[in-house]
Specification:
By secondary structure, this protein is of the alpha/beta class. It has helices spanning 2-18, 59-65, 67-72, 111-123, 142-146, 178-195, 210-224, 239-242, 251-261, 268-278, 294-297, 302-306, 309-320, 354-369; strands spanning 45-49, 77-80, 127-132, 136-138, 170-172, 199-202, 230-233, 247-249, 286-288, 326-329, 378-382, 389-396, 399-406, 412-415, 425-427, 433-434, 439-442, 447-451.
Length: 453
């Protein structure tokens, strides 16, 4: 009986996935591939796609054309920033000002282009999550004219932009309205059912009521069954997880790594923040760790932010290898040196800095091969009295990895942990065997990932 039930479940899975890009609307795209399984949350390596760095027009096609290169990095999920039509009234040309929740902006292509991109990702073993903007809409979204009661009003009855912000290009939604809530969930279901996407990254999730997210995620997952969905909250509210999100943002850690790399804090700040972020998370829930994203990149590239290429890589290793999960913002792998304003097209040379790209690729390969680096296994820090060298052992079953990162622009040493001293260990980056006696000495911003196997 169990075998029959498993067979029927698999058959249903393949049937539902094969209907992707067909349900809800007619499309000319091919059916979604049937051999794709969404990775476990612990194994997610997320690549953020800002369509406006890929092409000035038809950018979804341009992303599809680069998928082999993206896959080659070792990532297994794409987060695509909003691809919906952008509001023209009071516009700042922000993709987070959504005029139509159920359409693709002509700037990016067509819904068939999106279907083709999702198909191509699934065929390569990569999932796709869409960026979703539930807190507000564009002023010329049809909801404003047809359902003004779906929005927040001031004392004189005028619709307002989100309080406490300067987001004057968007209108604040009223989550006391049950009809609006139902319409929002319906719009999200459209992309799950008709395009076969694998989840959502939810913008400013902390500004949307938790009880809405609970209802929304429960409904989406029921609709997607037996497919899995990955849900990422842009926020740090612990209640994100009780609402059903799988990951939320490690904003506290990013602020800590920024301070540490600037010499304004010691490395024990990182292990302290890590412990705090994970202490009450619960099984199967993770923080998304990153050194940049579309918001941060508008201020400075990670190379400028952290004080040079070597410093940016030391920050990336300290951030992502300490506890997972991992985000790569499309462009950081080629060391794009300037800020990226996502309100406009910014051309990126994808052939720049091949050695840096290979370094990211190698780090992601190590991350993927060693579950100890991204699981809920043990995190065993070793103190550096000078506060300059992060030294942490990650342990899961028989997998032990020692992460050692010099966060200073000077030669630094740390006492070798007892079980790692005076016998050969493997440098996971170079593949070479080495041996440390009393001290591990590192060059400026050098990092080591070591295995005792």
């Amino acid at each position: 009986m169990k075998k029959i039930l498993l067979f029927l479940t698999l058959l249903l899975t393949l049937t539902v996935i094969a209907q992707g890009c067909k349900l809800g609307r007619k499309h000319n795209a091919e059916p979604v591939s049937t051999d794709f399984l969404v990775p476990e949350v612990a194994d997610v390596v997320l690549y953020q796609v800002n369509p406006r760095v890929f092409a000035p027009s038809n950018s979804l096609q341009a992303v599809t054309a680069r998928l082999d290169s993206i896959q080659d990095l070792g990532v297994n999920m794409l987060w695509i920033m909003p691809i919906y039509p952008i509001g023209e009234e009071k516009s700042k040309n922000s993709p987070y000002s959504v005029r139509d929740y159920k359409a693709v902006a002509a700037e990016y292509g067509t819904i068939e282009d999106l279907c083709t991109l999702v198909n191509a990702c699934h065929q390569r073993g990569m999932g796709v999550i869409l960026d979703w903007v539930a807190n507000h809409t564009a002023w010329d979204n049809v909801w404003v004219a047809e359902h003004p009661d779906w929005y927040t009003h001031d004392s004189t009855g005028n619709i307002i932009y989100p309080p406490g912000t300067d987001w004057t290009d968007v209108a604040d939604l009223n989550y006391d309205n049950s009809d609006m809530r139902a319409a929002m969930i319906d719009a999200m279901r459209f992309w799950v059912d008709s395009v076969g996407i694998d989840g959502f990254r939810c913008d400013v999730a902390d500004q949307v009521p938790v009880d809405f997210w609970s209802e929304c995620i429960r409904t989406l997952r029921a609709s997607a069954q037996p497919r899995k969905l990955i849900m990422l909250a842009e926020g740090a509210n612990p209640e994100n997880f009780t609402a059903g999100f799988d990951l939320n943002y490690a904003w506290e850690f990013m602020r800590a790594i920024d301070q540490v790399m600037k010499g304004e804090g010691k490395v024990n700040m990182l292990t302290s923040v890590d412990l705090n972020e994970y202490k009450d998370l619960g099984s199967g829930k993770y923080k998304l760790r990153f050194t940049t994203n579309h918001d941060e990149a508008t201020k400075a590239s990670p190379i400028k932010q952290y004080g040079g290429e070597r410093a940016s890589m030391a920050a990336f290793v300290a951030t992502t290898m300490l506890h997972g999960g991992m985000l790569v913002y499309g462009s950081q792998e080629v060391g794009y040196p300037e800020p990226i304003n996502f309100f406009k097209y910014v051309p990126v040379d994808w052939n720049a800095n091949p050695s840096l790209r290979n370094e990211y690729k190698k780090l992601i390969e190590i991350y993927n091969e060693h579950a100890a680096l991204h699981s809920s296994g043990q995190v065993k820090p070793f103190e550096d009295p000078a506060g300059a060298v992060l030294c942490v052992e990650r342990v899961l079953n028989n997998d032990n990895v020692l992460v050692v990162v010099n966060v200073r622009d000077a030669v630094r040493s740390i006492e070798t942990p007892a079980m790692w001293a005076s016998h050969p260990v493997t440098n996971l980056v170079t593949g070479e065997q080495t041996e440390f006696n009393r001290l591990i000495t590192l060059q400026p911003y050098q990092y080591l990932l070591l295995s005792n196997k």
